[in-house]
C-alpha cells in the first residue's frame, strides 16, 4: 500500500478546496504558489496575479483597504 505523506497530499487538497492557498517568498516578495481556485474566486487568471501581485488589492472590500495596506 502506497501512503502519501503530508507534502505529497498538499497539491490534491489545495486543488480541490474552494479556498485560495498562496505562498510568497520572504526574500523576493514574489508569489511562488497560487492554487487554481483563485480563478474561480477572483475571476482573475492566476498568471496575472503572479505577474502583478498588487492586483489582489482590487479584490478587497473598499472599507477594508486601509486596514489591509497597514499590515
Shape: globular
| Helix/strand/pairing category | alpha+beta
Q: What are the secondary-structure elements, in order, as H or E? A: HEEHHH
* Count of separate DSSP helical elements: 4
Number of domains: 1
Radius of gyration, whole Å = 15 Å
Strand share of the residues? 5-15%
Work out the number of β strands: 2
Low-confidence spans: pLDDT under 50, at least 5 residues?
A: none
Q: What is the helix fraction of residues, given as a range?
A: 25-40%
**Biggest sheet descriptor:** 2 strands, antiparallel
> How far do the termini sit from each other?
46 Å
Please describe the topology of this protein.
Blueprint lengths: L5 H11 L5 E3 L6 E4 L3 H5 L3 H6 L13 H6 L1
In short:
With 71 residues, the chain is α+β, with helices and mostly antiparallel strands. It is 39% helix and 10% strand.
3D structure, described in words:
The structure is a single chain. The protein is an alpha+beta fold and 71 residues long. The protein has one domain (6-70). The protein has four helices and two strands, in the order αββααα. A two-stranded antiparallel sheet has the order 1-2. Strand 1 and strand 2 form a beta hairpin. The protein is globular. The termini are far apart.
